[in-house]
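Notes for week 9. Today we move from apo structures to complexes. The key idea is that a small molecule is not decoration. When we ask for a structure prediction with zinc ion present, the ligand SMILES becomes part of the input, just like the chain. The input block below holds both the sequence and the ligand string. Read it once before you look at the output, and try to guess where the molecule might sit.
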Amino acid sequence: MKPIHLIPLGAPSRPGAEPGLDLLEYLAAALARTFRTPCQIRPETFDLSFALDAGRQQYYSTAIIQRLERAVDPDARVLGVTASDLYVPVLTFVFGEAQLDGNCAVVSTARLKEEFYGLPPRQDLLRERLLKEATHELGHTFGLRHCADWRCVMTSSHAVERLDVKGAEFCRACKKPIFTNGYW
Ligand SMILES: [Zn+2]
Ligand SMILES: [Zn+2]
């Protein structure tokens, strides 16, 4: 299986656009266990300024994925991680987006933080939500679509409440194509 590269996404003109290193380190270790492949944090920050929609004050996730695909190592599976809010034109926001059966995915921690909802920070909850969202988007890069099993990480979740009830792992049916079909 290809290794996973985590790429911090930042914007030079906007401090705080990129995720904290401790959070990335946690994520890298957890993803390596889940996908049974090395996962490293790339040392360079990828500038996502080009994807900013000034009116919405959000970044366009599809544009980020397309740019990442051209810029990164094709022999790795790539997950961009940002603290900034993401969108696609038809939706108010997205937690993340991925190329179906591709190489690249992107996730945002913006709406995974309790602070976003006016609540006190919860680092444990942020880590858990980020791992679920990252695992879900990477699952799409293995060609997986949404799963009907509500416990499976591939079930769709458009709100943090839904993220919190599902598990961080793939159900048996979703696990199978990842670990048997050609990726290994
Ligand atoms: Zn999905
Ligand atoms: Zn499933």
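The first strand starts at residue 4 and ends at 10.
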